[in-house]
Design brief:
heterodimer, A: mainly alpha, two-stranded antiparallel ribbon, B: mainly alpha, 9 helices
Chain lengths: ~220, ~200
């Protein structure tokens, strides 16, 4: 991962205001323009695995917001004292700490949900979004704007997960949050809550985002 | 769960519970390297080796250090540290003793640390309460299954370079959809054996 090109941070460098006018732009980037899942295609393991129900998707979204904000804040606070050579290990340790905290909370208060999510909470450690934000953003920016970045990317992730979860639950079980919403004659298509449904749903979602944002127009389709 | 023979778990991990197609693990590196069969196979070989070895190490640490001392909540951080350290060690070892292998596998090794399939297998091992040999079989089978899926899809993607895919679908979107079709094909194995 190249860190040689720090994100230009002109307003932060000025005195006054923890992140100057950069907050809004950072928020917008994370949620829409640089959405971690649909545009950058990061962290899709969990986006596929937990989206068979809307509820699971939302809990996972909250987990990622929590971990991303926490790790961004601490990576940013420690950015001037972390030796460059061991920064990856330091980042992983910080991220893992927050994941453990969230996992313990989940186990203590929402045991059922914890069982449903299985290993995927632990797998947030290897989620490229968290690591990517720590590496690409928090290492070069001040704490407050790093928190904003964490929130933005977490929300961007959560929205996409909720979308996929909503459609998969609707098509696959005919329910939303466990309540039946489809008419009587609707026969749930089980395929949507099984593995293939996840891949196809995300494929179509990415295509939709591409179509909306006009990405892909000129490339040859060989890029990831 | 514990009465399943390791062989059944091995077969199940390859076909019915394919780590990539049924559990969605290792997607990131999967999308990056599944464009060419050779690269896919190279990474696959590295994954099989690292996955089997780290599962065995993590099994030992979990059951003989973390459980007796009541430190199971630390398992995430210990597992990821073991994986990172092991990969680093293998990289140095291979570089020192087999330059040919290093050039073949070397570039893939750092990618593996962040491959969630490796950590995922260790976590599944704990959740499903596997015994030692079951864990080894699961790690080895998981690696083979992952490699099988990635090589198959790399073949499809190589062919697809010449097809006229609608513009918004080019790249990742169509890759996801063919992976979905592949997952559907693998569901055909589901009647064979079943592990949770």
């Amino acid at each position: 991962m190249a860190t040689n090109e720090p994100i230009a941070c002109t307003t932060c460098a000025l005195p006054g205001g923890p992140c100057g006018g950069k907050g809004i732009a950072t928020l917008k980037d994370g949620v829409w323009a640089q959405n971690p899942i649909s545009i950058q295609i990061l962290g899709i393991c969990s986006a596929l695995a937990v989206t068979n129900r809307l509820e699971n998707s939302l809990v996972m979204g909250v987990a990622l917001i929590f971990v991303c904000v926490g790790s961004n804040l601490f990576v940013s606070l420690l950015r001037n004292v972390t030796p460059r050579r061991i920064r990856m290990i330091a980042e992983v340790a910080i991220i893992a700490t927050f994941v453990i905290v969230f996992d313990q909370i989940l186990k203590a208060y929402y045991w059922e949900m914890s069982k449903q999510l299985g290993p995927y909470v632990g797998l947030i450690i290897t989620n490229c979004i968290v690591m990517g934000r720590a590496e690409a953003f928090a290492l070069q920016n001040r704490p407050v704007v790093s928190i904003v970045d964490g929130v933005a990317n977490g929300i961007g992730y959560a929205i996409v997960l909720a979308l996929i979860g909503f459609f998969r639950e609707l098509v696959g079980a005919g329910t939303v949050f466990g309540h039946v919403v489809m008419p009587e004659w609707y026969v749930p298509n089980q395929l949507a809550i099984l593995a293939p449904g996840a891949f196809v749903a995300l494929g179509f979602l990415i295509a939709l985002f591409n179509a909306l944002s006009g990405a892909n127009e000129e490339d040859e389709g060989t890029q990831p | 769960m514990s009465e399943l023979s390791p062989f059944v778990i091995l077969i199940a991990a390859i076909f019915t519970n394919n780590i990539l197609l049924a559990n969605f693990l290792g997607m990131c590196s999967f999308l990056a390297v599944s464009k060419q069969i050779e690269t896919a196979a190279g990474l696959g070989a590295a994954v099989i080796f690292v996955m089997t070895a780290t599962t065995a190490i993590n099994y030992g640490i979990y059951h003989h250090v973390l459980v007796p001392f009541g430190l199971t909540y630390l398992s995430f951080i210990v597992f990821i540290a073991v994986i990172a350290a092991f990969v680093q060690f293998v990289e140095m070892f291979v570089e020192r003793f087999s330059l040919g292998l290093y050039h073949a596998l070397g570039i893939f090794l750092p990618l593996i640390t962040v491959n969630c399939a490796i950590l995922g297998v260790s976590l599944f091992m704990i959740i499903r309460e596997y015994t030692f040999w079951q864990s080894i079989a699961f790690g080895f089978g998981g690696g083979i299954g992952w490699t099988l899926a990635i090589v198959l899809i790399a073949g499809l993607r190589q062919k697809m370079r010449y097809s006229d895919v609608p513009v918004p679908f080019r790249g990742v979107a169509i890759a996801m959809i063919i992976t979905g079709v592949m997952a559907m094909a693998f569901m055909g194995f589901a009647g064979m054996v079943r592990i949770q």
